[in-house]
Amino acid sequence: MLYIIIPIFNRIEYTKGCLLSLYKQTYKNFKIVVINDGSTDGSGKVLERDFPSVHVINGDGNLWWTAATNLGVKFALKNGADYILTLNNDTIATPDFLEKMMYWAEKKPNSLLGAFAIDAETRDPDYGGEIIDWKKAKAYKVLETLHLDDRVGLKPVTHFPGRGLLIPSFVFKEIGYYDQFWLPHYAADYDFTHRALKSGFSIYCNYDAKLLVFPAASGDKDLRNNKNFGNYLKHLFSIKGGGNIKYFTIYTFKNCPVKNIPFFLIKGIITRIFGYWRKNENNKN
Fold it and tell me: Is CATH 3.40.50.1360 the right assignment for the domain spanning 2-216?
């Protein structure tokens, strides 16, 4: 059985769109778990009224992404999940998304599979995985190396975000849960997949499984698109800041090879401090 884990905080319209897309899947053998972490926009009532088959776990608003996801994962494992898909609510699954995920999961049973992200508004490719080079302190985007005809099947990557990641249940038993103590929001998904890779599991972007995303919907996008000193400080130091220096440092020490830590860390911090003020390309970061 596949369990789909979706943490939410407000944004009920996104949640509805995501859930409705899951109801249209060609693959049917799954259950949905939504962790509603203290939403104040009526999300709980809408879920109860319009999506009674969804299992809802309620939080108090202090779980953040990592702890909320862990709650869902633990519930799924307790109820016999064979596979777990972590999914963000600001996504829309194409009708054969789960079918394509499970097809490759059967062929690659010791692998974690990420989704090929497509911009929901422009239909342009948005994300197809990365290969990190710790020595050069750079992550190379796999999508940029592929011709249009090559954007099919599985492509190996070194890490992957949790907004559409299929994970065999035994991976959690082998390496544990997402690190909610040190990485409560951002970078916990990258950290988890790095740990999986070190433990011998393969990680791929599944270019056959397409997920529509809204790149401008993340909290840090607002901080970067509306540049001012207050948002700059939030970007660098708040729990929702994508450039949070503390969590980047923790992520580095947890995953970067020891000999590469100084350069990787220094370059990353400089990029975060000064990169915020760079003009966005095509109004996007």
Answer: no
User: pLDDT tens digits for 71-120?
Assistant: 999 999 999 999 999 999 999 999 999 999 999 999 999 999 999 999 99
By DSSP bridging, strand 138-141 and strand 202-213 are unpaired
How is residue 136 written in tokens?
């050069």
| pTM, to two decimals | 0.94
**What is the CB neighbour count within 10 angstroms for residue 78?**
8
On whether the CB atoms of residues 201 and 111 are closer than 8 A, the answer is yes
85-116: b (≥16 Cβ within 10 Å) or e: bbbbbbbbbbebbbebbbbbbeebeebbbbbb
In 3D space, the residue among 216, 221, 272 whose CA is nearest the CA of residue 243 turns out to be 272
Quote the tokens at residue 84: 């777990």
| Every domain of the chain and the residues it spans | 2-216, 219-275
